[in-house]
Structures are given as structure tokens and as C-alpha cells.
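Quick one, T. Sequence first:
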Amino acid sequence: MPTHDATSNRRAFLASSLAVASASITSSARAAIVSAESASVVAAVHDLMRVRIEIDVKGNVRVSDNALASKETRQTFPIKSEAVLDYEERYLKPKDATESSEIVAAERYYHTATNQSVLNKTSTDQDLRESMRHAIVRRESLPETIYSADSFFTHGELSLLKSPVSSVSVNRFLPGESVIQGDRYELDSDALCSVLNLTSVDSGRVESEVTEVSADTVRFKLEGDIEGSVDGVGTRLRLIGKMTFDRREKTCTWLALAIHETREISRAVPGFDVSATIRMVRRPMPQPVALPAQPAVIDFDRSPPGERLYVELQSRQLGVGAMMDRKWRMISDAPGSAVMRMIDNELSIAQCNLRPLVQLPEGKQWTVEAFEAAVRQTLGDKLTQVIEGDQRVSAQGLRVLRVVADGETQGVPIRWIMMHFSDDDGNRVQATFTMSADKVEAFAGNDAQLADSLRFLEKADIHDGKPGDEKSLAGETDAQPEIAGRSAPHDAETTSSSDLR
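C-alpha cells:
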């Protein structure tokens, strides 16, 4: 019996030991399996990246008869475009920033920035000037602000560089923790705003799913619908996409999105209903190739410098250009008339109509008295009073006559600022600013900026990237009277330009 008991105890011990060992092996194996299937997708800090974005767009542009009066679509025009942006990007942070701090500034050098488009059967090829390839990007508010540290973009160039997806913040689509295949999570509205360059996301949902975990990568699928805004203009997006996280580089290296976007007609630009395919590839760089060796210096305690945010507005048809605040847009550029409009967050502040004028005889110029008389005659019963009239020689060497008048149209108090530009070669153009009386303060003397910066352009100076026969797509604009489109009346005093130097 004792021997039997000893044998039984020994067998029980062996059985127990085998069970413990088996459980231990099973637990280790299970842990190994879980480890192999899970992956951390916490992005590492990379200060320098090479990025390539390809954007293909097809759809329709929607136009109203008059965007100031109604946003109802009256006409649609088919559009197709293919854009490529290829740049190196250096991220800039304040001195007290941590690894987890959001990137709010970047420095870029564009190796390629091109767009080929067909709008209503009119083809346009656009490129970025060599002198404008170095740029600064600020993202304290969205959509991001792009400017040059050395010169000024045209509106066409700014439109070319505005990408619907931000390479700066694409890592915000990552969950920032360990995941396994099949995990699902919702993208928050801040991440959607940041990556999609939206001012706000008001409703909707975009969900991401982990579709594959391998030794090298983690792949995601994105899908959802959102409604939001861009600078006060409503937009609706339906998106489906894929994203790849490189486990060795610890960053998102590939993003592809198919987006159907319907954006409302705004006071500054047409609306649209388009489908876009966006492909982004990005890789860390060990050192810059074309960017300056030393990073740009940014004052993070201040907004982007106002003196760098002017935009060069050009009228191809009239052969004139000017540096203006970015609130100004060239709405229409047609033979005999160009229209600029000042829009601040969908609030129309003022409009400026530009008209070419016939040449005066050599050595003759209009006087401010003659110009004021023509203003009075043209405004007629609309005129209440002439506030002031003056003349000057601008920073561009042009002779500028200026008359400020108050009046009324259909019971609405109106302020007109009318300006006459001329040079010694007989070139002349008239600018007429029109605004309601309650917008004068918001207008903030923008006529002074036009007065000093307007210049007559040679063909080589025009770099807006637009076709020569482009027509306005912003709807009809209110016609303004041509004040000085004729020679000086016989009873008006004329003087030589040399008298005003």
C-alpha cells in the first residue's frame, strides 16, 4: 500500500506538472500570437519629409446670376483637372513644444506644382514661378495660410498650392495606440478639420478600420460623410480612403482618398459638385535637398505677418496689376472691364470696377478738377456730396487722381471712391470702389493700397496661369459708370504731366 500510494502520488505530481506546463506553454503561445497581431501606431517625430500629392478632379462648377444677391445655381460648367504637388517639408515648432505638440507651422520647397484643367472647354496649364517655390505654411487657424518670405503669390498660385489634404497633420488620422486587425475607431472633428483643411466640421461621422497588421505596416480603411465649412462657405463631403502606417519609420507614408464634395456658391468664388481622387506619398528625409540649411525663424506669439499676406491681383485683359489684401478677389476679367471684390468670411465689403480708358494726346493729362466735374456729371441725382478730391504720384510712378463721394441708390447710402491712373505714355485706367456707407470702416482705406501698387503690365509680367480668353464664372457684376473714358472736355483744364512731378 505505501508503495502504491507513493506511485499514485508520483503520477498525480507528474500529471499536475504536465498540466501546469501545458497551461504555461498555451499562455506563452497565446501571448506570442497576440503580440504578432497587434502593433503600436504611435507616430514618431520627423522634422523633415518629402511629399508628393496627386489630385484628379471631375465634376461641375455651379454659378449664380449674381452671387451677392442669390446663391441659387443658374448655370453649370463641366470641369476636369489634374494637379501634382511635390515638395520637401520641414516642420517648425516653438521652443517649448513637446513631442506630442501639434505642428502649426512648416517650411516648404516645391519641386513641382502644376495643374492642367479644362473648364467649360477652356484649357489651362498652370505652374509655379521659380521665385515662388520656397514658402511658409501656418496652421494656427484653418484652412492653412501659405505665404512667401520673399515675394507675393498671385491668387492663381495660391489656389494651385491649396491642397484638400494636409501632409502636415495626416498622422492625426492614426489612433495613437496599439491596434489589432479589425479594430474600429471614429475620427474626431478636430482631426478631420486639420487633415482636410476645413474651418469646421458641424455634423457627420468618419470611421477608420484596421484592415491589416504585418511586420512592416499597419493598413487602415476610412469611410464616412461630414458637413462643414471653409471660410464660412458650407460644404458636404463623402469620403472613402485607405492609409498605411510604416512601423519602421513610425509615420503615415501613404494616403489615398476618393472624395465627393458639394460646396455652396460663395460671394467670392463659384460652388462645385465634384469627385476627387487624392493620392499622397510621404517619406522622412535625412537632410534637406532644396530647403535652406537653416530653418525659417517664426514668431509663434504672433499671427502670420500682415505685410507678407498681400496677393498680386492681375487683369490680363486690361494689362494692370496690384498688390492687395487677400480679402480681395478678381471676380471677373473680360475685355473692357475687370471686377475685384472684397470678401471677409462671406461678408461682402466692397467692389472695385476697373475700366481701360482711351489715350489722351501726348503731353496732356486730366486735372483733379476735371475728374471731379466728370464724377458729378456721371453720378447725377445719386450724388449727395463730394467729400474730397486729391492727386498724387504713386510709388509706381503713375499719376493718380482721386475723388470721394457720398450718395444714395434705391434708398441705400453709398460711398464711391473713384480713381484715375495714367502714365507718360498715355496709358489710363479708371478704378471705382463702391460700398454701402456702413462698410466704410471695414473697407479700412484699401484704396490707398491700390493707389500705390497699381501698375501697367507688359505681357511678360502676367503670370496668373489663366487662358487669355477666360470668362467670368462668378456671375454678373453691377456695372459702374465710366467717368473718364473720353478726352477732357473743352472747358476742362488740362496740364502736362511734368507739372505734377
